[in-house]
Amino acid sequence: MMGIDELPCAPDLLVLIFAIEKENSRMPPSNRLERAVTAATIMGFIAQIFGLGIRGTALSFVGIVVAYFIIDRIFGWSNLGQRLRNLKITPLMLVAAVLLAILVGAVLRQHYIDSKIVDLGEVTDNFHWRLRLCFGRERCIANTLADLSDMVPSRSNSAAEELFSDQALGEVVRTSSHSVELLRKVYGINDRFVGAGQALPSRRAFISQRTPEFLVFNYNDDHVGVLAWRLTVDSPLLKKPLRDLINSTPFNRQTSVDDTRNRILQNLANSDRPSLIRFAMVPDVEEGKQQLYSGCFALPVRHRAFFSSLDHMMHNTATVEEAADLSGYEFNQQESNQHMYIFVFAPAHVTEVIVPTWRNLLTGVTQDVQIPPACRTLRGN
């Protein structure tokens, strides 16, 4: 399938046409077959420009040969040539007409392609040109990312079309290190981020069972609706069901742990504000040094943190350890002094939770970079 980008073949065709015209001038008038094949070959070029397949090009070739002999039979080429000379039509004008037909065909073909699919190459080029003008400014990069979602729209509301356009957006974003770095800073995405609203399990293939994931504001662990636990690699709770973990004593402060626990269990199946769970690996440090744990769901610079569906986890895993693995986290046996932090959260408002698809990230990053993260790194601040 040829498009307007392939027009550099036009000069070669021009040379071919002049060579054919020169050669034809030397042929005797009786040598009709060579002239017919010449005309059919030129029309074959034009047919390819208009997007005809092999069969269509072959039929046009045969049709031109047949038409050549019919015209010769009815009018005679000598008479037709005399008529063209009377009309003052020169070979150069015929060449110009052929090249004009090629240009029109290429433009129409490109228009047809653009109406059916999005040219990701062109979108990526425009995206990078706009990023260069940002000179590393985060708000400018965020605005460019937000505009990118409009350049790769979904052709329909079907799940398959939305998924396809969403993954296409992700491919464009991944071509820019500045964009990926901003999304990593704001949301914590990494190479395992799928962008389809589902967490990729630890050490498993893409087709493995996955769990719904969400992005939540990066609150402190004493935020309303949060219970948090800190487990070591040998904690007996790792071998217990998630419900046993929730019924155990958390380490964070809440006005009423029992009320928070009941609210979490009541909102398990809430479609708008489902109860969520997050696993995070944080290493300990030597005594006397500053603790690495920020007191928040994620690093202080993050605006949102990834959570998984607690209801899905409770129905599809037998232990806390299995749930951590399904969300993409596991203990590294080669490292010592690791702590697994587990946060369970019952959101109070719909706006606190978004599904982390590529499109949702791009449309939300502009607003998120304009406000400071919710995390307070020092208690009481």
Succession of helices and strands: HHHHHHHHHEEEHHEEHHEEH
Anisotropy-based shape: elongated
Q: What's the pLDDT, averaged over the residues?
A: 79
> Which residue ranges are poorly predicted, with pLDDT under 50 across at least 5 consecutive positions?
1-15
Q: Biggest sheet, in brief? A: 7 strands, antiparallel
Q: Please, how many domains?
A: 3
Which class of secondary structure composition applies to the elements? Answer: alpha+beta
- N-end to C-end Cα span: 62 Å
Rg from Cα: 33 Å
Total helical elements: 14
Quaternary state of this entry equals: single chain
- Amount of beta strand: 5-15%
Helix content: 40-55%
Total beta-strand segments: 7
General description of the model:
The chain folds into three domains: 113 residues, no CATH class; 78 residues, no CATH class; 160 residues, no CATH class. It is 50% helix and 10% strand. The longest helix has 26 residues. By secondary structure, it is an alpha+beta fold. The two termini are 62 Å apart. It has 14 helices and seven strands. Helix 2 packs antiparallel against helix 3. Strands 1, 2, 3, 4, 5, 6 and 7 form a seven-stranded antiparallel β-sheet that branches. The N terminus is likely disordered. The protein is elongated.
What is this entry, summarized?
This protein is of the alpha+beta class and 381 residues long. Helix content is 50%, strand content 10%.
